[in-house]
Amino acid sequence: MIAGVCGGIARRYGWRSRNVRLAFVASCLLPGPQFLIYLALWLLLPEEP
């Protein structure tokens, strides 16, 4: 979405990136720290060349 976190997770596990993005957006509708986890993954996941 913003930093490629969903796309990176999808590539890592062989999932479709659209499905991972939809799951993330759906999870943001629920209470919890989803956006903070996204920001942490943005900082922790290595960038692809």
UniProtKB/TrEMBL annotation:
User: Which InterPro entries does the UniProt entry name for this protein?
Assistant: MFS_dom, Phageshock_PspC_N
Statement: the UniProt record of this protein carries the keyword Transmembrane helix: yes
- Key word Membrane present: yes
Major facilitator superfamily (MFS) profile domain boundaries: 1-49
One GO molecular function term of this record is: transmembrane transporter activity
Membrane-crossing ranges are: 22-45
Q: Which UniProt keywords apply?
A: Membrane, Transmembrane, Transmembrane helix
Q: Name one Pfam family in it.
A: PspC
**What is the designated name of this protein?**
Phage-shock protein
Q: What is the lineage of its organism?
A: Bacteria, Bacillati, Actinomycetota, Actinomycetes, Pseudonocardiales
